[in-house]
Amino acid sequence: MKPKREKYLKNLLYAFILNNFIFLSIIMISFSVSQYNYKSISNENNIILQYIEDVESLSETFNCNSDILIEASDKLDKVGVKLNILETRFGKKDARVLQQKKLYSELEVKHFNIIKKLKETCEEDFITILFFYTNLKPNDKKSENVGFILTTFKNKAPEKIMVYALDYNLDSSAIDSLKETYHINEAPSTLINEQITLDVKNIEDLENILTE
Fold it and tell me: Which residue of 37, 122, 160, 207 is surrounded by the most CB atoms within 10 Å?
């Protein structure tokens, strides 16, 4: 009877050690992925910042070539996806996440201003959407829903529709300047082409913009 009990206890101990090893391995892998995403976003933000600054330096010899901005927009979208992963991994209030969000928002505003110039100077047919969201209750879930709708809408014409998602509560002078300029005093708020503020509830609220 005693050998059986000892064998049972050994098996139980081995199972405990194995389960803990698997658990710790998952934590380490998750942490490594999170760190990789953080470094990746940091590096890409620096690349995009230089990329957009290079475009801005060409303002005096503006040639109405929108290809470079479309490419920059694609890069911004990819960084935005990674930023969402960071929020999930580290939390939306994590200092590293907020640091990257602040820089990312500055890049978005730079891109938005260049798109504005393309529209005004070159009569490019872009649709710009400034989406001010919040991660704070009670409007966090509504913001998530509007964000999903805007993403679906953008996918209908990704080279024409420019969506800039901006955290209303982020400590950012770039975002504060936009809020003041366009009289945005709540979130979520959706500003279409700098003039139309919509309370977006479904994709149909946006469909007619494509035909205007």
Answer: 37
